[in-house]
Amino acid sequence: MGRRLLFLGPPGAGKGTQAAMLARALGVPHLSTGDMLRRAVTEGTALGLRAEGIMAAGDLVPDDLVVAMVEERLAEPDASCGYLLDGFPRNVAQAEALATALGDGAIEMVLLVEVDEEELVSRLLGRAAELGRTDDNEETIRRRLEVYRAETSPLVAHYPATGIEVVAVDGIGAIDEVFARIVVALAGMPAPLPTVPP
Ligand code: AP5
Which pLDDT value is given to residue 189? Predict the structure, then answer.
């Protein structure tokens, strides 16, 4: 079994960007619940139809739907060699469901990507013009930040209380600089380090 890491941080912190790079470097799948849900919306599946309005409002899709989706994905063969979770768990109930499904070793370490709110809003408004995500407008971005503070940030205390280390990484700076900090953060772990991509 390879690395089992969780990227935590507010919307726009760069979790998806960094998780994709690290997943390539480590050769493990990048599991983004946001990407999986957006795919379900595009494909018009039953899950997508339930999730679409909730995501557009910046709220969380119900835990039972998301937990079932993640459990199904983690049962695929490529996840047997490790994974990087991005956007899941999103609250303590999801964290407990994951620990129940996979046992205490489901996550080895949490990487908390920290970025101040002004920069988060500016990044997400910048992406709105680029990608056209329905939740990248100022009102919904503010709601996503509120949901992060109320629902997701308690995980920063929950994981150490269950014996899992949370390592904070400064998410401000060039993408490669942030990646290099993540590589350093992983240096304490007993496995080969990924190399910083050129
Ligand atoms: P999700 O897709 O997880 O959205 P999010 O957490 O709001 O994350 P983002 O993708 O906005 O930010 P990120 O931190 O990944 O940053 P990124 O790398 O993209 O979830 C969307 C919705 O799905 C939720 O609101 C909810 O409704 C639902 N959902 C998902 N998971 C769920 C769950 N578990 N339970 C219930 N509901 C769930 O970067 C952002 C931008 O910044 C990009 O343009 C990027 O190019 C740029 N950028 C990245 N790094 C830097 C840098 N260092 N400097 C400058 N710009 C940078």
Answer: 66
Q: Which helix (H) or strand (E) holds 109?
A: strand 109-114
Q: Give the per-residue pLDDT at 107.
A: 95
Alpha helices (runs of H) in the chain, residue ranges in sequence order = 15-26, 33-43, 46-57, 63-74, 92-102, 117-131, 138-147, 155-161, 175-185
Residue from 6, 61, 72, 98 to probe ligand 1 pocket by mutation (most atoms less than 8 Å from CB): 61
Asked whether residue 144 is domain-assigned, the answer is yes
Prediction pTM value: 0.94
Range of the domain at 130: 4-32+82-188
**Residue 51, both tokens:** 């999730």
Rounded to the nearest whole angstrom, what is the distance from the C-alpha of residue 104 to the centroid of ligand 1? 26
CATH number for the domain spanning 87: value is 3.40.50.300
Measured on CA atoms in the order 137, 22, 34, 96, is the torsion positive or negative?
negative
Handedness of CA 165, 30, 39, 36 (dihedral sign): negative
pLDDT averaged over every residue in the chain? 94
Return the structure tokens found at 6.
């969780």
Is the shortest distance between the CB of 97 and ligand 1 below 6 Å?
Answer: no
Spans in the chain with pLDDT lower than 50? 192, 198
Task: Give the Cα separation of 138 and 121 in Å (integer).
Answer: 7
